[in-house]
Amino acid sequence: MRCAVVLLLVFAAARAAAVVTDGLLPNGNFESGPAKSELVNGTVVKGGKAIPKWETSGFVEYIESGHKQGDMLLVVPQGAYAVRLGNDASILQRIPVARGSYYAITFSAARTCAQAERLNVSVSPESGVLPMQTIYGSNGWDSYAWAFKAKLDVVELVIHNPGVEEDPACGPLIDAVAIRTLYPPTLSKGNMLKNGGFEEGPYFLPNASWGVLVPPNIEDDHSPLPAWMIMSSKAVKYVDAAHFKVPEGARAVELVGGKESALVQEVRTVPGWAYRLSFAVGDSADGCKGSMVAEAYAARSTLKVPYESNGAGGYKRAVLDFVAVRDRTRVVFQSAFYHMKADGTLCGPVIDDAKLVGLRKKPSARRLML
Ligand SMILES: *[C@@H]1O[C@H](CO)[C@@H](O)[C@H](O)[C@H]1NC(C)=O
Ligand SMILES: *[C@@H]1O[C@H](CO)[C@@H](O)[C@H](O)[C@H]1NC(C)=O
Ligand SMILES: *[C@@H]1O[C@H](CO)[C@@H](O)[C@H](O)[C@H]1NC(C)=O
């Protein structure tokens, strides 16, 4: 009997230990590649199991950094190799996870020939189509985040290029696929906003000095930035203290989408009560210069915070007082303008350390009538 219990414990421990750890997935940067015999015409992967730890389908190419395509030199951000997903091609990896937990996937992608490329990232039954038409990263690469809730003990992550281009070899390059467990944020004392400092979020690839784009998500989706929704049509950029300057803690959000992206959190409020939203507005020291205006909205109140950025880091604090009109209030951050760095990449003001507190109770109607 005791023996069986011990065995069970051993199995349980083994299973727990088998769950994926935060960081690059096994061969997540594609550094271990197919044998020469499994490549056709130099780059085209033959068979579905040629790349260790991955399964591929469709026109998948194994690309070495420095590979020339026409007059374009392809660079690879992590290590020396990446894969290219041609028309209708996909890569798949099975990941042992903790059922019921939330995870964020981070991966890097670069557009090659087509103007508007998209990638469908899925962990059945959830999927998200990430558009890649706007260039945010100066070397052509951007990192993207997408989140899912694990419904099984082993999930299949699929990155699929649904595109159909004239040239079947056209399609995005993929590199550095990583994962991070997300912990549902709890309320901390003195703040009605969850994850107000943006400390909880997707994995940062160690060498990705261009941050991680968090694409727009709809309410039902799981957000890679727990408690926050990205609304409207453009992504926001998640930045870390290792590569950028952030006002508080280790992480913050750069509003790179102008009025086309909004960072939103909904909180419970009492209609008629007064609340105070305070936050930091700054720049991430990524060379984004200019007269910026960060906007905050809550209930019927708006605050425009001008911030003069010299692109070298810095921040100021701002406060928005508002009176709730409903039992739920959306706190919204936006950038009034688009900004562009000298290299043509989109940038904008940084938001961090958002706090919401109740100010005082509404005088009760009965007392007013007396
Ligand atoms: C290899 O190149 C030849 C000649 O360009 C082409 O006909 C063939 O379809 C290519 N094979 C693959 C698998 O792409
Ligand atoms: C990051 O960059 C350094 C220096 O270029 C390199 O030595 C290291 O291998 C890189 N790490 C990864 C994970 O690519
Ligand atoms: C994305 O992929 C998933 C899984 O294959 C699929 O169910 C979903 O319909 C796809 N979405 C689009 C828009 O193609």
From TrEMBL:
Signal peptide segment: 1-18
Keywords: Cell wall, Glycoprotein, Secreted, Signal
GO cellular component: plant-type cell wall
GO MF term set: enzyme regulator activity
Domain named DUF642: residues: 23-180, 192-354
Subcellular location: Secreted, Cell wall
Classification via InterPro entries: DGR2-like_dom, Galactose-bd-like_sf, Pectin_Meth_Modulator
Protein name per Swiss-Prot or TrEMBL: DUF642 domain-containing protein
